[in-house]
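FORM 7B: Structural annotation worksheet

SECTION A. Query
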Amino acid sequence: MARWKEALVSRQTSIREAIQILDKSALQIVLVVDENQRLLGTITDGDVRRGILRGLELSQSVQEVMNPNPTVIRSEDDRETILATMRSRGIHHMPLVDDDGRLVGLDTLDELLQPQRKDNPVVLMAGGLGTRLRPLTADCPKPMIHVGNKPLLETIIENFLSYGFHRFYISVNYKADVVKSYFEDGSKWGANIQYLHETHSLGTAGALSLLPETPELPMLVMNGDVLTKVNFAQLLNFHSKKQAMGTMCVREYDFQVPYGVVEIDKHRMLGITEKPIQRFFVNAGIYVLDPAALQFVAQNTFFDMPTLFEKLMEKKKETIVFPVREYWLDIGQMSDYDRANGEYKEFFP
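SECTION B. Predicted structure
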């Protein structure tokens, strides 16, 4: 929220001035920062009252009443974690700081509960055949299989809506009418839905060439077979703050080698590691793209998202990653489908 800047004070500010800011800003919090805007502490009405009861003069510095160790959040913290922290600690505001401790924003409980409307387009890829999920996909595209009590694609759209997104493009090919007849224009969900018709498979990025016009704002792109609780608002904020051309969500993936691994140098044995665990970051199938990235998308031909990112890197464009720490599951085969249905009520009540 932009109004948080009205609540900034220096450590030399008097308690009296802080009270005036508390009353004037209506934010119910004052943020004490140094000359580099690093957060030093916070002040609420309760802090002021406790200071007065201790006999402090209103002319004294805010350092005498501020909380020097406030609970803060960082860009990677998800919405549910922030809300849970606020509720458990009985607080209504949490300063947002960067890796250097500089104040960059303020989240409030009211704003988290009432998502801000976002005009950024969301492109959902729903044209895949889903051959590994047959017979479930014999009569519908993979994103329309039921997980929980509704189609997977409906859960995805509702998640975006909960963060204020309302403009959707759905890329369709296989069994396109199933998707179109179910969602129509999206008005039932308070959304605006348009369709990108693939006459042949265009891959996870090629369908972007079918957009009727180049968006003015960064767009979110997501595979229609991913079930996740990622904070889309924080993802977009992260992308914008880093001024990236493309952001790829990544998920940490562990793989345990089932054997003892022998390290060698030519014929000499250097060591043995028993069943080591290898850790990687894998593509999570969720992206944010600057409109300028569309110029690198091949027209009306198969073009995957990893190829687009390779192209962006080749052109020395800023490409970054956003680690997904929230619930995430790629429903690619029957075991994933069974797991999704088993976990759905826990993560999507």
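SECTION C. Observations
The CA atoms of residues 74 and 291 lie 26 Å apart. The first strand starts at residue 8 and ends at 9.

SECTION D. Sign-off
Analyst initials: ____
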